[in-house]
Specification:
14 strands; Rossmann fold; seven-stranded parallel sheet; single chain; 18 helices; 2 domains; alpha/beta; disordered N terminus
Length: 426
């Protein structure tokens, strides 16, 4: 680190230290993996490809890429920004060394890079960390983006910060963009055009059948029509509960699986629902011989990693973050599992997947809670129509296969350049 950069790092560290101490005292959850966030990752064997995925959704997108790289003899070290993402990494890729990503501070980043000594840094979707990218560039580590996307909101922020972030975008050696629109946005932010390819969306490259449903959960979901509401946020659960009330009024027998975006909300939400007179069970408290959900009953899914398999039991699904201004979560998972999907109008993060599903008839956009209730009841009452819509959606997604292979090729193209540029690898 150059003397000026060291001085700046020291000053910023002195300023941020008391702020960080207060934050850790107020938010105990932030203490999880604090050593890793400070760069103290357990050193893997050097020369691995460092794949970084921000949180749970990006981990799901990166999983098949990591597996394919490993099968080709290219070992991976994986990181994520969130503790939930790290849990998901370790559950789905237990043989791959993983950690929380370092804070974007020179000391943390330099310490982490010095321990990992990667042959290449691969960022999934959009993860622009200026200090991290600059440090990797100084060490001669090639930097690639896969399944690259720039949302409307991110584009506005990046344009405002272009004087500060221009070097970060210019530091990217290769960008595998999701779409032509995303490729154009990367060009507008300073990535040289010759470094950009449209490789597609890793989430659109349909995976084979996922992990099987646990036996106790399969028994509980062995009943009739089921609405699965996944990745919900406050303000959306009440809208979903309206579906059960409407089903009861019109004589449609249906139950509900409710999976809040943060599993930690499960227990307080279950308590709130029970106090309001709802019949509710908590996934973490299921016994060995639970009966199936009865019509009007709710299962609160407070676990990580089981939602994709639960979608396979849905008659119809709703994906959250779309009725509130979040921007949406993975609307493809339900269709890949065999269920049509409903989503609200807030689709900034999932606009292209939502468009594909709408065109196939497998995705239905609802403008508000009333429309959600009406469409969900209609599909719960017509399981044959729901299944036909899901089948059309899977057929539409099958035409987007190949992004994993194209992303692997993009990464492999960077590996041959790394030894000449990266002194850490000798």
């Amino acid at each position: 680190m150059r003397p000026l950069a060291h001085s700046v790092a020291a000053v910023s560290g002195a300023v941020l230290l008391p702020v960080g101490a207060v934050a850790l005292a107020v938010r105990p959850r932030w203490r999880i993996g604090v050593g890793e966030r400070l760069g103290g990752v357990r050193p893997p064997t050097p020369g691995r490809i460092w794949v970084h995925a921000a949180s749970v959704g990006e981990v799901a997108a990166a999983r098949r890429l990591v597996e394919r790289l490993e099968r080709r003899g290219l070992p991976v070290f994986a990181s994520t920004t969130s503790s939930d993402g790290r849990m998901r990494l370790r559950a789905t890729l237990p043989a791959v060394p993983s950690a929380l990503a370092p804070l974007d501070h020179p000391w943390c980043v330099e310490r982490a890079l010095g321990r990992v000594r990667p042959a290449c840094l691969v960022l999934v979707e959009t993860e622009i960390w200026p200090v991290w990218l600059a440090a990797a560039r100084r060490r001669g580590i090639p930097i690639a983006v896969v399944s690259g996307r720039i949302s409307d909101r991110s584009l506005r922020r990046y344009r405002l910060a272009r004087p500060l972030l221009g070097r970060s975008f210019a530091a990217l050696d290769a960008v595998g963009a999701r779409s032509d629109e995303d490729a154009q946005r990367y060009r507008s932010l300073g990535v040289p055009p010759e470094r950009i390819l449209v490789t597609g969306d890793l989430k659109l490259d349909c995976a084979a059948d996922g992990e099987p449903l646990a036996a106790d959960l399969a028994a509980v979901l062995a009943g009739g029509a089921i609405l699965v509401a996944g990745s919900t946020h406050p303000g959306e659960e009440r809208a979903v509960l309206g579906v059960l009330s409407a089903c009861e009024r019109v004589g449609v027998a249906a139950s509900l699986v409710l999976a809040p975006r943060r599993p930690s909300r499960g227990e307080p939400l279950a308590k709130e629902l029970a106090e309001s007179g709802q019949r509710v069970r908590l996934r973490s408290r299921l016994g060995a011989s639970e009966p199936p959900l009865a019509p009007g009953e709710i299962l609160l899914l407070d676990s990580l990693g089981e939602l994709p398999a639960v979608y396979a039991r849905a008659t119809v699904a709703f994906v959250g973050g779309t009725l509130v201004p979040v921007g949406g979560h993975n609307v493809l998972e339900p269709v890949q599992a065999g269920s049509p999907v409903l989503f609200g109008p807030e689709l900034a993060h999932v606009r292209e997947p939502a468009r594909i599903l709408e065109e196939a008839g497998a995705g239905l956009r609802v403008e508000n809670a009333d429309r959600l209730v009406a469409e969900a009841v209609r599909l719960l009452a017509s399981p044959a129509d729901a299944a036909a819509r899901a089948a059309r959606g899977r057929e539409a997604l099958s035409r987007h296969q190949g992004s994993v292979e194209r992303s692997v090729a993009l990464v492999e193209a960077q590996i041959g350049r790394s030894r000449g540029r990266n002194p850490d690898l000798g």
